[in-house]
């Protein structure tokens, strides 16, 4: 794959380099040979460094950064296309696909690196040097963290134990890929063809247009419903037909299970193997459970597994009574107003929406008409310019698909800080959900600085007629959330990739993203980024007031659901017993019947598609969303206390103390530097509406 290098000069004469892929030159056939060659070069480099009697910082860190970047420029684009363009690049997917083979090569290389005693001892020798004593705090933190990572990875194990660990690491990588592939294949396999439009009664016209387009793409008449998020939410929320809602719910609830597709993509055995693998690797490394291993590198290490369990239990105690009252009210409303006396799982979103409209007169489809993508993006960029002191400019560069946007980011002194791509819409062959990913991290070059590059991926409903896309308020929140991650990456001023935001403690990584979501609920911000589809008027204050009132509608139910997910994750990974392995679906059923208050689908196989904890890096870490939300809520209060939610002074302090340091110091220190104190433990409960201010 070819790359271009855009070089700019800062007002002070320093060079900034932006490296961009030429997506048209991507060839999957070259990925594995290029990786193998780079790894051969990397292994020789490791042996050379390990043999140096008195290594320098440059030899241990700086000299290897070029090689690791070249590795990432092979793997990064390939992995991104596997997640977003499987229809175009089918050779990437599956257990025998190029992505899986490349991941296996990387896992092997990473294992060799983290278990290399010679490299470990070279770091220990350096710690005794005068150069180490004179390092800046960020560089010293990097060396200290690297030594800790060697220890946690098992560098002190015997040769036999290392060989076993390497096998476990290889197996774990392959299992994660298999889980994701099964999830995507099973999701894409389910479709419902509808000929009679009357079956879709209640579904908004914009959603029906998309379903009609999907049918046309398959040379079908009528409408095609898929399990892509926009279709699922449209049916669950608006379809008048209970039969249709039930059918789609069953398809959605049984993804990647034995109940669908003749078990072809059943993730049950994959989950069992993932849990066994995680437990065995943790025990081999000296941890009682995988949960203990997971927490060792997180902010929550200070409280341990029992502290995280108490954190979750305490919130459940606050949320469950509120959720019980809310669900009782939903059932009463469903019976009286909708004639639904046997409340079922496929009724929940439908009743939720109808009840919210009745109480607050907030119609999400009417709200959508005020948020064209272009206006929202303009509002978001203006917000970031105001609080972070940046300037965002849309550019024209090579992209992987028509419709993908590209933006460059400059600071207040017109210095290039980085760039990002935005791929906003759902499609077949694209991973579900929303995510940000890193392609290039900032680093020091001989003649200047390389600036970071990121991806922003969402799955909003694409426009059916090629015109302007209109976003739900939930889509707006998602865009702000992922942009928070993007700007955490772009605003980093770290000179080494391993000090970027990509290496912050996992239970704090959601702080900048959830922090930025707060502005989606500010009156001035909502009006600034809105323009009605027909009248061109901004969203009325009266509607905003109703939206704000509805914001805390059923927060007990919503919060309890998130807490159940975190509780499920922690129980799986902290109580695994190899003699009596946990059945994830049995555990989930136990949790939803003892802690949850709303009904679960009788055939639900939700764990089979819970990729966050089986293939997405959140294993024994799903609590991080709630943990970081408390930090984000407390951080936002600084703006409120200043009397100006767009305060440049507060925003620039947030950039300086939280975003710019990346992982060059613990996030607890960064938060304390910004807030002037540690986290207020009540901040999260107040933010969630579980206790009064």
Structure, described:
This protein is α+β, with helices and mostly antiparallel strands and 693 residues long. The protein contains 27 helices and 11 strands. Among the domains are: 23-114 and 116-156, Up-down Bundle (Glutathione S-transferase Yfyf (Class Pi), Chain A, domain 2), CATH 1.20.1050; 373-551 and 625-687, Neurolysin, domain 3 (Orthogonal Bundle), CATH 1.10.1370.40. Helices cover 54% and strands 9% of the residues. Strands 5-6-7-11-8 form a 5-stranded mixed sheet, with helices on both faces. Helix 17 (473-490) crosses helix 18 and helix 18 (511-517) packs across helix 24 (624-642). The chain is globular and about 80 Å long. The mean pLDDT is 95.
Topology of this structure?
Layout: E1 3-9, E2 15-21, H1 31-50, H2 57-84, H3 98-114, H4 117-127, H5 130-133, H6 137-153, H7 159-189, E3 191-194, H8 205-217, E4 223-226, H9 229-238, H10 242-253, H11 268-284, H12 290-295, H13 304-338, H14 348-360, H15 364-368, H16 373-388, E5 390-394, E6 405-411, E7 416-425, E8 435-440, E9 443-445, E10 448-450, E11 453-460, H17 473-490, H18 511-517, H19 523-528, H20 541-551, H21 555-574, H22 584-594, H23 611-614, H24 624-642, H25 648-659, H26 667-675, H27 683-687
Parallel strand pairs: 2-10, 7-11
Antiparallel strand pairs: 1-2, 3-4, 5-6, 6-7, 8-11, 9-10
Helix pairs in contact: 1-2, 1-3, 1-4, 3-7, 4-6, 7-11, 9-14, 13-21, 17-18, 18-24, 21-22, 25-26
